């Protein structure tokens, strides 16, 4: 269920929106404010890079 006070980034319209809006599958969030929602794609990219680095470190540790 969407947070009526939360901010979301709509992948279809490539914009931030607050509360109920586009369908959940097309949105990222919720985020605490519009500025953070505007950075949704950057945040996702950073999280992916961090997870990839952690996976690589774990693989290196496991494989010696």
Structural description of this entry:
The protein is α+β, with helices and mostly antiparallel strands and 64 residues long. It is 45% helix and 20% strand. It is built from 2 helices and 3 strands; from the N terminus they run βββαα. It has a 3-stranded antiparallel beta sheet with strand order 2-1-3. It is elongated, with a radius of gyration of 15 Å. The model has no long low-confidence stretch (mean pLDDT 93).
Summarize the structure.
The chain is α+β, with helices and mostly antiparallel strands.
Provide the β-strand percentage band: 15-25%
Query: Could you give the count of β-strands?
Result: 3
One letter per element, helices H and strands E, the order comes to EEEHH
Distance between the termini: 44 Å
What is the subunit arrangement here?
single chain
Flag low-confidence runs: none
Q: What is the makeup of the main sheet?
A: 3 strands, antiparallel
Number of helices: 2
Class by SSE composition: alpha+beta
Q: How much is the radius of gyration in Å?
A: 15 Å
Mean of residue pLDDT values: 93
Shape: elongated
Helix content range of the residues, please?
Answer: 40-55%
Physical arrangement of strands within the biggest beta sheet: 2-1-3
